[in-house]
Amino acid sequence: MNHIMNKWMFMVRKCELLILFIALLTGYSGADEGSYTLEWSGTKALREGNYEKALEEILSDTLAKDQGFRFFKLGLVRYHMKDYREALFYFRFCAEKSTKLAPFAYEFIGDIEHTMHRTENALHAYRVALETGLPSPYVRHLRKKVYSVLKQDSTLAAQISWFGEMRESKAEITEEIWMPDFFDTLLSNKEWKLVDSVIAEYAKKPKSSEACKIFKVLEKYEVPNTIFPTIRLFKISRIAYYCRKYKKSSNWLHKGLIRDDFSSSVPTGEYLYHRAILNYRLKNYNKAIRFFDKYEKKYGLTPDIVLMLARSYRNLNKGVKAALWYDKHIKLYPHHPMSHDILWYRAWQHEENHQYEDAIRSFRKLYQSYSRGSRADDSYFRCGLNFYKAEMYDSALATFRGFNEKYSRSSLSTASRYWEGKSCMALKKFSGARKLFHELAAEDPTDYYAYRSREMLTILGDTLSFSFVDTTKGIAETRAWLDSICVDRREPLSSEDSLAYEYGSILAAVGLTDRAEYFLKHLEEDFPRNLVLQFDLSELYRICNEPALSYRVGMRLAWRIASQYRRDRPLPVYSLLYPLPYRNAVMKYAHEHDIDPYLVVSVMRQESIFNPVIESPVGAIGLMQIMPYTGEEIGKDLKENFVLDSLYVPAKNIQYGAYYLKKVMNQFDGNIVLALASYNGGPHNAKKWLNRNKHQTFDMFIENIGFSETRKYVKRVLANYWTYKNLAQALGYPSG
C-alpha cells in the first residue's frame, strides 16, 4: 500500500513540475490582461477540505489558462496538507508572476514563515501584502497578523520602522487589536499593578465593546481579589452588567460588598442604582423593588426606574401596582419615548379583557398623541381589529380603509387590506372581498397574507391557480429579466469595482470567504439598483457554499424588486430566497424526530438567516437559535453530554433544534401555530395565549398573540413553510 502511495505521489510531483516547466518555457506572466473567467477546477474539493481530490482535479485540468490562479490553488492545497516547503514554492511563483494574486500569495507566505518561526520573513511578507493597495478591512486583517507575530517577539517592534508608522496611522485599530492581547500578556505574567491600571482605564467607558473584550480576557484567569481596590471591584461589576453577564456582575459586586471599606469607597447612589437594575436583570424583582425604593427616597425618580418598577410589579403578577407605576410614568414623562409603549401595553390589556371600546379609545389616543411614534400605525390597525372583534364591521371596514390611505407604506399595509377583505366578507360584500384577496394573492405570492387570501378565495368558491413561479427561465434569462426591470437602469461598474468583483470571486471560490467579503461587501452596498450584480453576488456565494451570505444578498435583491414585478420572479431567484442548506443534516434529524424537514428549515431561515455562528443579544446560538440552558435540557433528554460549543456546529444545532421543535409540537398536540409561538415566545406564554384565545378563528388567534415579535415570527415562519412545501419539487428538493 505504501509503495502504491509513494508511486502516486511521485507521479503527482512529476505533473506539478511539468506544469511549472511549461509556464516558465512560455514566459507566463499571469492573467492580468484581457477578460477574466474564473476557472473552478479543484475549488469545490478545496472548499470541502478534500485536498487530495483538489490536487488531482487541478493537475488534470490541462486546459487551464489562468496559471497564476492554478499555482495559487496548488499553494493552498499544499498549505492545508501542511507541506509548507511545497506551498512556499507555489505561492512565491504565483506572487512573482501574477500581480493580481500577489497580495494573497504573500499573506500565506507570511503565515507559513510565522508557523516555521521565521519571524522576520513573516513580517516582510505581510508588509509586501500591505503595500499592494488592499481594501481597508483587508489591511486591518493583515495588521492583526502583524500584531500576533510581534506579540511573540515584541523586541522586533522597536527595530521595524514601518511598524511604528502603521501604529500611528491607525491608532484606534491598534488599540482595539493590540490591547486585549497585551492585557492577556499582563495577566499571564501576573503584572497586577498594570492589570489594575488597564481595568481602571476601561471602567471609564463600561458600555463600550472594548471594555467587554477586556472583561472577557479577565474572566479567563483566576485573579486574586486583593490586587484590586474595592472601587475597582464595583467598576468591574458594572462592566460585566453592560456586557450582559449579569451573574458574573453579581459575583464581582459581592466580592466588593464583603470589604469593610465598601460604603466609603463606592458612592451610595451608584451602588443602589446598580444593585437595583442588576436584580431586575436577574429577575429578582422583589429585591429590585426594595433597592429602587431606597434609591427613590434618597435621590428621587428617573424614567427608567419608574419603568422598571412597573415591569417588576407586572412580572410579580401585581397588576394594580404595575398600572399605578405605568400611569405615573405617563404623567411624569409624557414626552418620553417609552410613554407610548406604556400606553400600548394598557390598551392591549383592555383588548385582552374584551373591553373593546376601552381598547379602541386607548389605541386611538396613542396614534393621535404619538403620531410619529413607532406604534402609531400598529395602534390604528388594532383599532380596526377591535371593531371587528366587537362585530362592528362597518366601523372596522372604514378603519382599515382609512389605514390604507394614511399608512400606505406601513409594513402592516398588507395585513390591513386583508382585514378590509375580511370585513367585506362579514358584511356580505363579496365582490369587494374577492377583489382585495385576488390583489393580495398575486402581489407578493409568498407573503403570509397572500396565502390567507387564497384560502379566503377558496371559501368564497373562487378557484385560483397556485402556480406563482416562472420555471421557464434559467440563469441567463433571469439575469436578462432583472436587467429589464431595473427602474433607473443598473449602475455600471468602474474598472476598480470590476477588479474587486474578480478578486472576491477568486477568494470565495477557494473557500476564503472572509477575505472575499472585503472586496464584495461594498459592491453589495454601493450598487443596490444593479439587480444583475446583486443576483450574481448571491449566486456566487451559493455556489461557494456560503448560505448565510447568499441569503443575505438574495433577500436584499428581493426587497429591491419593485412590487409590480414580484409576482413574476423566476425560479433562480426563488432558489436564492428559499435555499436548503445543510440538507443532509436537516433531512436526517427531521426524519429521526418525525417532523417535517421543511418546517425545520423554515424555522432556521427565520431564526438565523442560515448563519451557523450567529448569537442573539440574549445568548441564543446558531442556526436554530438554541439557548444554552435549552441545549442542556435537550442533551439530558438525548442522554448525551452537552458541550456549549457544539451549538456552533451546524449538524448538532439542527439536531437539537429539530428535537426541540418536535417536543413543543407534542406539547400542543401537533398544533403548528402554538408550537411556533412556543419556540419563539416560550411554552408558558403559548399556553397563556391558548387559554385566552382558544375559541378564536385561525386568523384572529394569530393576531392576538401577545408579543409583537412572536406574532410576526409565527406569520413569517408559516409563510416560509408554505412556500418551501409548494416550491420543493420545482427547486429539486427531496420530498418531506
Properties at a glance:
globular; 41 helices; 736 residues; mainly alpha
Q: What does this protein look like?
A:
- The protein is mainly α and 736 residues long.
- It is built from 41 helices and no strands.
- The radius of gyration is 31 Å and the shape is globular.
- Mean pLDDT is 89; it is low at 4-10, 17-35 and 167-177.
Helix content: over 70%
Number of helices: 41
What is Rg?
31 Å
Termini gap: 44 Å
Query: Structural class of the secondary elements?
Result: mainly alpha
Report the uncertain regions: 4-10, 17-35, 167-177
How do you describe this structure in short?
It contains 41 helices and no strands. Helix 8 runs parallel beside helix 11 (171-188).
SSE blueprint:
Elements: H1 2-25, H2 43-48, H3 51-60, H4 67-80, H5 84-97, H6 102-115, H7 119-130, H8 136-152, H9 155-159, H10 161-169, H11 171-188, H12 192-202, H13 209-218, H14 230-242, H15 246-257, H16 262-265, H17 268-281, H18 285-299, H19 303-315, H20 319-332, H21 339-352, H22 356-369, H23 376-389, H24 393-406, H25 413-426, H26 430-443, H27 448-459, H28 475-484, H29 495-509, H30 513-526, H31 531-543, H32 547-560, H33 571-577, H34 583-592, H35 597-608, H36 628-637, H37 650-667, H38 672-681, H39 683-693, H40 698-703, H41 708-731
Helix pairs in contact: 3-4, 4-5, 5-6, 6-7, 7-8, 8-11, 11-13, 14-15, 17-18, 18-19, 19-20, 20-21, 21-22, 22-23, 23-24, 24-25, 25-26, 25-27, 26-27, 28-31, 29-30, 30-31, 31-32, 34-37, 35-41, 37-38, 38-39, 38-41
